[in-house]
Design brief:
- Four copies of one chain form a homotetramer.
- By secondary structure, the first copy, chain A, is α/β, with parallel strands linked by helices.
- In chain A, about 40% of the residues lie in helices and about 15% in strands.
- Chain A contains 13 helices and 14 strands.
- In chain A, the strands form four sheets. In chain A, strands 2-10-9-8-5-3-4 form a seven-stranded mixed sheet, sandwiched between helices. A three-stranded antiparallel sheet of chain A has the order 11-12-14.
- Chain A starts with 10 loop residues before the first strand and ends in an 8-residue tail after the last helix.
- The model of chain A has no long low-confidence stretch (mean pLDDT about 95).
- Chains in contact: A-B, A-C, A-D, B-C, B-D, C-D.
- At the A-B interface, helix 1, helix 2, helix 3, helix 4 and helix 9 of A face helix 1, helix 2, helix 3, helix 4 and helix 9 of B.
- Chains A, B, C, D: One of its GO terms (cellular component) is peroxisome.
- Chains A, B, C, D: GO terms for molecular function: alanine-glyoxylate transaminase activity; L-serine-pyruvate transaminase activity.
- Chains A, B, C, D: Keywords: Aminotransferase, Pyridoxal phosphate, Transferase.
- Chains A, B, C, D: Its EC number is 2.6.1.44.
- Chains A, B, C, D: Its cofactor is pyridoxal 5'-phosphate.
Chain lengths: ~400, ~400, ~400, ~400
């Protein structure tokens, strides 16, 4: 059943789905169970509490929805908004584009603020819109924390600050799909009203759980929001939370045990250490790109992403060929350039349960591929630059000291 | 991470999620992969063709949606209907009730035809409605093939016959969640327009894929249906089918390999043999119930379900206690009675990758539990009745002759 | 890679290798590790301490040898004895026969005490030999605790009593392969000098670890024993125990983690509860055999084995056909009759991580097979007899109360 | 149960046990089975045929013994030789030393030919011994094909040539533990009489199968060899081969399925391609060592090993600290220097199911460790040298072209 075998371990460096650690694969290696037995609700209760920790919220209500990030988006929107509601949404890359497409198809009145791909959300434009909206016609701000297509991280604290300085009541709805559990994310402190992520990203699970966390204000909004929803309706979850049985419909037993293992690994490492590790991996990658003489698609340091790096290739190279060759010769999966940056960038995902030597193996591979496609890279240069930094920053492994 | 260990194998006899065979557990025991590499589309292409075989359709278009049965319901409805559309829907148990609730919340005009729980859909009422609807105001008939709460199987061929005899163009939308791959189901022959199932039922996978298959007529209807939908929109799938990349958003890699293994097992056994095995298991269970002197919740033989049996307990017994005791003393999971039949029935699920000796172990357990809760069962009686039948009907194992 | 697929769970009722619980399968689902890293010695140290608990010894020294039971036998003998040494050995079935064959090939002077197959060791003969051996020419008594071929359990306490009453210094070497962790076994109390078991028996692991535990007296004997041995030499282990690195050659990493999981399950259930469970399963099986009107190969109650039951079939039936049919029609593995009882008995193994409903499924299967081969069994009779007993004796599951 | 967790994939670069590919881990993720059912002999029959292919023999008889390499050694010796027999054995490192220790403890008359560690077997000495042994007192030549402690590969073709040129009938017994399936090995062509390997080496399985293949001449010798053996006796295997049941005692079911998967992977890649891949990995490693300015423990190119490289560190560095630091900071396992080269060398194992980017990750790690311990390495230098070579030699992945 494996049609494309190649010797050795596959090197998975797309920005999702990411590598699943063995501990999680083991935890999921199991038969189904009755989700109405006492075991699953008991487990779910603790999972819901623990999930809140990785969102840094105590006030939020989490929903573990059997869906993908796209479904989590829909759950966030339809539970809090009504058709026709004005929302401000930032278009900065392919995933924000797809979310805006969803917002429009769900009949919201989307006020799109577009940036050049490679730049962050135009928060100055947001500020002027908020400033001029004393009537509070804007019902929500929708923003991706980390745009996976371009490797751009937006400044959420700044968004909160803008809303607060104008005492604007708009909901703050955040796509944290490629950020939560990897980048610094503070739901309560930043006043995020709905935050979402997907199991197959920094949690390092298979695809299948869309995690949505709602602030009390979002829960309140859900009581009057008129968007039609059934599968994605929080109301059904809240009813079963009350009953103590937790699940309005069948969850994946395997993913629940997997989530338990994922959270245990994160708590054992320490969430701040996880974030610091992603910063190391992101920095090391950027140093390699620089050493290769290539440009980061992300135009300014303030937007650098620690979970994915989009690398611009010279115009005489087709970045898709880099990705193809990675898979065909080096057993390496890299991310394609999408839409506006198709053919122009390839992407290195460096999120999830990943360590430095894995990344260095990938970077060594990218060097050889660049050579293959005609770019005059100095072999070893990126690894050298990354290693020089990592050699100074990698901590001892806590469990082994 | 296993808080409720008990010696030996757990006996899982709820009507879903069901036992996953080892071959599938093995196939799913794997890391994530890039779903944009050539491997996943190549695999998906064949999976889609093979899925059609278990629905007995050549004309249908399958969608493997990362969701549960509830989401599959929603996909079936919102892609083919518009708010306000009149639909006829049969209320015969808890799952048809939940589907009707969804239909109403999605703003369809639901013409509910209710039966006593334990009876099948009132097809005579359907006939009179169809007969009198020369204006074709009825846009769809929604029917569960097998009501999991009461163990009632409806006659879909008869529904088709009624529609045909009046040349009525209503769409026929079928919930096959606890039937497809276990009961005789013929999408093309019976003119089913949308049929759905879930991975955790007769396919014997974990929860996570809602399988929806649409007839050409349903695909046509989807072009004009006005229900809002994004995550569940077939259009996005069809676009990616055209592109040959197949996935509008991230699928579960593990479930794809699992589905491959599940289909391989079904094809190796032979779909007709799978159905015959379910008939054996259903019959054996009913013979045991009869031997115990208990009644089947299903009131007539024509509605007997080969995938689940709801057993009525005497009024002096609380069926929930049967289920509790099964779990606490015998390491056995049985299905609770739901809603109107709560406390009155317990359910034995006998679907999926299951064999006769497993069932007999379960039946032996049920006998002891009945004794525990004060019902004067003759121990061994149900097993004897079931065995007498099975001893005459179990075939030799094809691979071992 | 599964050439003999059959629907549902395989029913494994041979007396070894036995069913592996999911918790152990999960624990073993892993990559290799460096056995010279600090992790493996740290784990081994605790494993060795914990293994002693299941032998009920504090004074013994355990060896976890990468071998089978046959190798463990050889290790027990060659480390404690010299060629030409006189040993008393009991021939009561196929496995004691094989051990005696090994003893002879290793050039010991084997004083064989033979019983009819189905009877226990002739301890009266032992007593007379011991009584007359004031010169202490007998260097060791070799006895199987539980003869797996006939389902006979010997009385070890009695052996110790005989040796003690004559103050005879012979070593007491015990094959506990199908007893330890399932039957009452007390190494220190009974003065056992070498006790062995195999991972694939009551520990419910794959084959691959031969566990040998040596008393201080046995360790002392090993210093002068002249039998040649290298792979099986305890000396190499003891040297590496001293060094704290524990392994003279590469262990199976997977089996170490599996053993950890196996011991955890046993300690969680409680060793005495494990033994009581085996007694329930053994008793239930014997009651079923009796209800079928068949005879137990074990001739007296004092020898009844709680881990395996050898069932005598009438002379007009070939017991091999029972076993063949179990596999070919019912997806059930039973044990063949071996050597002198080939064709005359089939064996039901009921040891390891197994519960009552699993056993009842097996018994229901055996009833149908008996019918198939022409024995006039009353279907349900054995299950009824077993259930009547089990219904009174199965405890609530401790973790679920 | 994982006491030493660290983020990301562990980098396992000891020369055994080696990385197990996911396909094998999956194949082994299973319950026990009855090894006396028809399934296991059917599988075994094919396995035995296929195992011969990786030894490049058609005349040989393979034995899959539940043991380690040490046990395989013992099986090779005791089945073919008698105590007192004169054998010539080459001491060139720790593993040949251990084998010689075994030979002596088994009471053979061992004529040890010692080389400096880092050099190959002294074949000129062999030649003179053979030349002067017209009486044929030498019964066997024992030689390790690849000494794992020093990374030295001996020239077996030359050994055969010496024996042939003097028409000397000594048996040629070869330890192929760290060579077979990775280095060029030709049992029939080189007239090897007994060849052994272990499952945890180039086959990339867990420890647990010692594979011994005997030539017809070795089988003939086993009929008169007087060394005592029972567990390791080929006679018992041959008897069961005749019976068609294959196993004198319980095999590991999991390892059999694992071996099946391992052979499938090797045959799919092509044995010659596997060997070529090992040559690439070995060459790349040596180029890195050279670029770091360090010396290979192997003193001449003719002895370079493609499965393990022992790297000499400057005298002011303790190579054990390199290994400790690899594990504690970089989640990397390297091999220690053993015995005479303890503290002086660390070893990089590059055998088994391994690819180039994995190796480059390891090499990048070694560079940082060298820096940590005070060696003035230029970061990136080894990776650059290795990449320059690999970039020219890595083939396209056959299944993906």
């Amino acid at each position: 059943m494996d049609y494309f075998n190649a010797p050795g371990r596959h090197h998975l460096f797309v920005p999702g789905p990411v590598n699943i650690p063995d501990q999680i694969i083991r935890a999921m290696n199991r038969n189904n169970e009755d989700y109405r037995s006492p075991a699953i609700p008991a487990m779910t209760k603790i999972l819901l509490e623990d999930v809140k920790k990785i969102f840094k919220t105590t006030a939020g209500t989490p929903f573990l929805i059997p869906t993908t990030g796209t479904g989590a988006w829909e759950s966030a929107l339809t539970n809090t908004l009504s058709p026709g509601d004005r929302i401000v949404s930032f278009l900065i890359g392919q995933f924000s584009l797809l979310w805006i497409d969803q917002q429009q198809r769900l009949k919201f009145n989307v006020d799109v603020v577009e940036s050049e791909w490679g730049q962050g959300a135009k928060l100055d434009v947001l500020e002027s819109k908020i400033a001029s909206d004393s009537a509070h016609t804007i019902k929500a701000i929708c923003i991706v924390h980390n745009e996976t297509a371009t490797g751009v991280t937006n400044n959420l604290a700044k968004v909160r600050q803008i809303l607060d300085s104008y005492r604007h009541p708009a909901l703050l709805i955040v796509d944290g799909v490629s950020s939560i559990c990897a980048l610094d994310f503070r739901m309560d402190e930043w006043g995020v009203d709905v935050a979402i992520t997907g199991s197959q990203k920094a949690l390092s699970l298979p695809t299948g759980i869309g995690i949505v966390v709602a602030s009390p204000k979002a829960i309140e909004a859900s009581k009057t929001a008129k968007s039609l929803r059934v599968f994605f309706d929080w109301k059904d979850y809240l009813k079963f939370y009350q009953l103590g049985t937790y699940w309005p419909y069948t969850p994946s037993i395997q993913l629940l045990y997997g989530l338990r293992a994922a959270l245990d690994l994160i708590f054992e490492e320490g969430l701040e250490n996880v974030i610091a590790r992603h910063h190391r991996l992101g920095t090391a990658t950027r140093l390699a790109v620089e050493a290769w003489g290539l440009k980061n698609c992300t135009q300014k340091e303030e937007w650098y992403s620690d979970t994915v790096t989009a690398v611009l290739v010279p115009s005489y190279i087709d970045s898709s060929e880099v990705v193809r060759r990675a898979w065909k010769r080096y057993n390496l999966s890299l991310g394609l350039g999408l839409n506006k940056v198709a053919g122009k960038v390839f992407r290195i995902g460096h999120l999830g349960n990943l360590n430095e030597l894995q990344l260095l193996g990938c970077l060594a591979g990218v060097e050889m591929i660049l050579k293959d496609v005609g770019y005059p890279v100095k072999l070893g240069s990126g690894v050298a630059a990354a290693s020089a930094y990592l050699n100074n920053t990698i901590p001892m492994i806590a469990s082994r000291i």
